[in-house]
């Protein structure tokens, strides 16, 4: 999982470095969920989905 997060961060960094129109407004890197949020944050995530940590497990029917 960490390798995937690292790859996403590097890809985002390449896009930002390209200087293409609109990239100057890109600030967020959304990746990770409750179970892997520490890894996501360590790899630069600025948005993490933490629903399970707040609401608990869902019952799927």
List the helices and strands and how they pair.
Blueprint lengths: L1 H17 L11 E4 L3 H6 L4 E3 L1 H5 L6
Parallel strand pairs: 1-2
Give me some keywords for this one.
PLP-binding_barrel; two-stranded parallel sheet; elongated; pyridoxal phosphate; about 60 residues
Describe it for me?
The protein has a two-stranded parallel ribbon with strand order 1-2. The two termini are 28 Å apart. The chain has one domain. The model has no long low-confidence stretch (mean pLDDT 94). It contains three helices and two strands, in the order H-E-H-E-H. With 61 residues, the chain is an alpha+beta fold. It is elongated and about 45 Å long. Keywords: Pyridoxal phosphate. This is Alanine racemase domain-containing protein. GO terms for molecular function: pyridoxal phosphate binding. It comes from human gut metagenome.
Number of domains: 1
Rg (C-alpha, Å): 14 Å
Structure summary, number of beta strands: 2
Counting DSSP H or I runs of 4 or more residues, the number of helices is: 3
User: Termini separation (Å)?
Assistant: 28 Å
What's the overall average pLDDT, rounded?
Answer: 94
Quaternary form: single chain
User: Based on helices, strands and strand pairing, what is the structural class?
Assistant: alpha+beta
Roughly how much helix do the residues carry, as a percent range? 40-55%
Strand content: 5-15%
What characterizes the major β-sheet?
2 strands, parallel
- Shape type: elongated
Order of helices and strands: HEHEH
How are the strands of the largest sheet arranged? 1-2
Q: Would you identify the regions where 5 or more consecutive residues have pLDDT less than 50? A: none
